[in-house]
């Protein structure tokens, strides 16, 4: 049967299976497995039945596991599934879970062509074995399906449209109004990088300074400082610009947090526990996160620092879970503090949160100048980071690895959602019940409330998104109905929030003119890759973002409209370029790009258009080169002769490592967070992540181009790109990108 493109939203309900016989036969292999299970103490016991929704080899939904109803499992679970797949059938697979894998019971098929008219299908579907014959007992599964094509969506390619836009639907956190947002380009902006970017209303863009603001927020907190991080390093300093010194700015982060805790501020930290690090052996982990050092540093102090392992619910077996227990991480990077009111005329306090891609650790401090050599005697002398060459060290000299990143500060009701996320995580993995009871401080800390008047043209509407599951966050909805309303989905053992992926898809589908992305990785939609030499199910990078982007471009080509996607990524993932892991990621990124360009080229040919596909989709890598100046830092040692390290030192050039996780749509909507564009970050059951999506209701791309803070921020990023780093093409900074 021919495959048909399903691009839209599929609403599915799996009700139940009747007359199910899940017994697994009595062959020799099954008996061996049973004996092993009994011996190692995790015997199979009663059947554990679950069902999945598949579009060919891409799994797009899964029910929870049921143990008490082996003959008539009743799930009554609903799914809101974004799809961009070529498929012949929607496949419902029924399996029996066990510790070393899962046993296939059977599959039921609903032809895709029956869904295209948008009518609801509600039926019992026969379950078949691998030979397409009815399974024992002629069991059937009761399902309901309805498909909504993107072309029938009244919001398709319409943008935000108005201030009445309610945000991304089916999410755990609702959109909040009356907020203030600060956008950060890198950890620091020096005084001599102030691009003059005009905004609407006769204003000019004014950049903010991330680590200065974080320092001030921590220093001025009186009641709480909550931090989560992939890595938190106690020895860094946040203030390093000699022209912008602050009182106490030379204190390390660790000493600052201990000082605040000794003053009575509740300082709580959730730091990812890298299980490859071994404190007793003084061995740093594979990721060099300093987790053991950080925990030991705060032992015996008033700071509560907890190392949190990530136990992902990726649907694997017990044995598979053991294999991947060291692979996935807690990747959220947030700071939550109490702060004074903007007016400063009251003793009342409010909640302020920071969300984005910058960890409070070594190697992150940088500016848009991204120096390779010139700061080795100053800002980076005690913070030299260069993991791409074996044996690199400050004593051997640069180039250091320049670090480009993006972060945000949230003020207003949405800041409380970030606080709630921290509370959920602390209650699940924090151990001691030391969270502040804010109800006892309601006479001091004001409840969630707008910080900007509705008629203020600088107001923001903001929504929080996450990738996280019930294994890492407390108090998820208990019933399947409540979970579905919150956009949560079932995993093997936990309920999963993957609203970051949903937010990206939602924004891409509404895009009108262009999309600008910066991300550390760009790989996914492997169901659309050339599968002649790979197995889609082995790769597992099923998230939709690359395919959604290419299908958006295709739709614009078919409509005869201009549209371009610009994507900035690092030249290679951090690490030794020749290593197997780096090469594998580069290969997957190549396959992703190949899939997207193939979609675009076929669309151009179908319209008889002869044009470079890079006019519709372009990838950029940033680099820097510095001429040597007198008085520059002189290392006492030299790299190994003939090494890549020595060659880079002689050439005085190196890539700028893009660690940002951001998307801008039409200069009116922005997503900033910790999530990479890969399966780890977008899955929900792998790395834990957090992001915000935001827009200014008075600065929308309606009758004229948006000229609010998002536009100014993008232009600042572009100016940094092509003024300081000539690798970055100037096309990104032309307003004609938008106006063509």
Tell me about this structure.
- The chain has 740 residues and is of the alpha+beta class.
- Among the domains are: 149 residues, Immunoglobulin-like; 233 residues, Endonuclease Chain A (Endonuclease, Chain A), CATH 3.30.870.
- The strands form five sheets. It has a 16-stranded mixed sheet that branches. The chain has a four-stranded antiparallel sheet with strand order 4-1-8-7.
- α8 runs parallel beside α10 and α10 packs parallel to α11.
- The protein is globular.
- It starts with a strand and ends with a helix.
- The C terminus is likely disordered.
- Belongs to the phospholipase D family. C2-PLD subfamily.
- GO terms for molecular function: calcium ion binding; phospholipase D activity.
Q: Give the structural class.
A: alpha+beta
Q: What is the tally of helical segments?
A: 15
Strand content: 25-35%
Instruction: Let me know the number of strands.
Output: 28
| Rg, nearest Å | 26 Å
Summarize model confidence as the mean pLDDT: 90
Brief account:
With 740 residues, the chain is α+β, with helices and mostly antiparallel strands. It is 22% helix and 25% strand.
Write the layout of secondary structure elements.
Elements: E1 4-18, H1 28-40, E2 49-55, E3 58-62, E4 74-87, E5 89-98, E6 101-111, E7 121-126, E8 140-149, E9 176-185, H2 210-220, E10 224-229, H3 253-262, E11 266-272, H4 291-298, E12 304-308, H5 318-324, E13 334-340, E14 349-356, E15 403-404, E16 406-411, H6 413-429, E17 460-469, H7 480-485, E18 489-490, E19 495-498, H8 499-510, E20 514-519, H9 536-539, H10 545-559, E21 564-568, H11 580-606, E22 617-620, E23 623-625, H12 644-651, E24 653-655, E25 657-658, E26 661-665, E27 669-673, H13 679-682, E28 689-695, H14 709-724, H15 736-739
Parallel strand pairs: 10-11, 11-12, 15-25, 20-21, 21-22
Antiparallel strand pairs: 1-4, 1-8, 2-3, 2-5, 5-6, 7-8, 9-16, 9-17, 10-13, 13-14, 14-16, 17-19, 17-28, 18-19, 20-26, 23-24, 26-27, 27-28
Helix pairs in contact: 8-10, 10-11
């Amino acid at each position: 049967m021919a495959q048909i493109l399903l691009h839209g939203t599929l609403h599915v309900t799996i009700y139940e299976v009747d007359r199910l016989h899940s017994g697994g036969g009595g062959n020799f292999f099954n008996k061996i497995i049973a004996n092993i299970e009994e011996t190692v103490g995790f015997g199979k016991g009663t059947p554990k039945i679950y069902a999945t929704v598949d579009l060919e080899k891409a799994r797009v939904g899964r029910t929870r596991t049921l143990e008490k109803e082996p003959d008539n499992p009743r799930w009554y679970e609903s799914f809101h599934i974004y799809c961009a797949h070529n498929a012949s059938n929607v496949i419902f697979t029924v399996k029996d879970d066990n510790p070393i894998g899962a046993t296939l019971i059977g599959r039921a098929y609903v032809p895709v062509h029956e869904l295209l008219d948008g009518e609801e299908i509600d039926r019992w579907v026969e379950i078949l074995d691998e030979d397409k014959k009815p399974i024992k007992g002629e069991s059937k599964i009761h399902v309901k399906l309805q498909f909504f094509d993107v072309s029938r969506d009244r919001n398709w390619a319409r943008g935000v449209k108005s201030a009445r836009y309610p945000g991304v639907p089916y999410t755990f956190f609702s959109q909040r109004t009356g907020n203030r947002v600060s956008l950060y380009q890198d950890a620091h902006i020096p005084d001599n990088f102030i691009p003059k970017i005009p905004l609407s209303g006769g204003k000019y863009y004014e950049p903010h300074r991330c680590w200065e603001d974080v320092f001030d927020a921590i220093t001025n907190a009186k009641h709480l400082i909550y931090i989560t991080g992939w890595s938190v390093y106690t020895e860094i300093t946040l203030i390093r610009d000699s022209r912008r010194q602050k009182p106490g700015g030379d204190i390390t982060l660790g000493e600052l947090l201990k000082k605040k805790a000794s003053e009575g501020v509740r300082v709580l930290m959730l730091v990812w526990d890298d299980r490859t690090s071994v404190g007793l052996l003084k061995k740093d982990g594979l990721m060099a996160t300093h987790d053991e050092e950080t925990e030991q540093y705060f032992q015996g102090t008033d700071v509560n620092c907890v190392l949190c392992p990530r136990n992902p619910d990726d649907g694997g077996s017990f044995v598979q879970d053991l294999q991947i227990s060291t692979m996935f991480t807690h990747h959220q990077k947030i700071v939550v503090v109490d702060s004074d009111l903007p007016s400063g005329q009251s003793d009342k306090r409010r909640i302020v949160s920071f969300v984005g891609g910058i960890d409070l650790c070594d190697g992150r401090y940088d500016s848009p100048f991204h120096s390779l050599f010139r700061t080795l005697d100053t800002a980076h002398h005690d913070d030299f980071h260069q993991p791409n060459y074996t044996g690199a060290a400050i004593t051997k000299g640069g180039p250091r690895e320049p670090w480009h990143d993006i972060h945000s500060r949230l003020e207003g009701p949405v800041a409380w959602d970030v606080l709630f996320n921290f509370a959920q995580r602390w209650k699940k993995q924090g151990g001691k019940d030391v969270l502040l009871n804010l109800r006892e401080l309601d006479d001091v800390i004001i409840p969630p409330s707008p910080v900007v008047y509705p008629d203020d043209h600088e107001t923001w509407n903001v929504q929080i998104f996450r990738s996280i599951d019930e294994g890492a966050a407390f108090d998820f909805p208990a019933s399947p109905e409540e979970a579905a309303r919150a956009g949560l989905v079932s995993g093997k053992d936990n309920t999963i929030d993957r609203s970051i992926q949903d937010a990206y898809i939602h924004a891409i589908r509404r895009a009108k003119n262009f999309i600008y992305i910066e991300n550390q990785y760009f790989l996914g939609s492997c169901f659309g890759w050339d599968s002649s030499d790979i197995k889609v199910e082995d790769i597992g990078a099923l998230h939709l973002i690359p395919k959604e982007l290419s299908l958006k471009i295709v739709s614009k080509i078919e409509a005869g409209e201009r549209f371009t996607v610009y994507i900035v990524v690092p030249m290679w993932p951090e690490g030794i370029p020749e290593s197997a892991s780096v090469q594998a990621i580069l290969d997957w990124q190549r396959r992703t790009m190949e899939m997207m360009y193939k979609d675009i080229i076929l669309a151009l040919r179908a319209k008889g258009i002869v044009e470079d596909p890079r006019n519709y989709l372009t990838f950029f890598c940033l680099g820097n080169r510095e001429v040597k100046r007198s008085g520059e830092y002189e290392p006492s040692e030299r790299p190994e002769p003939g090494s890549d390290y020595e060659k880079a030192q002689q050439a005085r050039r190196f890539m700028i490592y893009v660690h940002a996780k951001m998307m801008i749509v039409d200069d009116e909507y922005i997503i900033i967070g910790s999530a990479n564009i890969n399966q780890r970050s977008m899955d929900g059951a792998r790395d834990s992540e957090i992001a915000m999506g935001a827009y200014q209701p008075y600065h929308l791309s309606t009758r004229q181009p948006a000229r609010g803070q998002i536009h100014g921020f993008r232009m600042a990023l572009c100016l940094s790109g092509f003024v300081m780093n000539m690798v970055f093409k100037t096309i990104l900074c032309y307003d004609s990108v938008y106006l063509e």
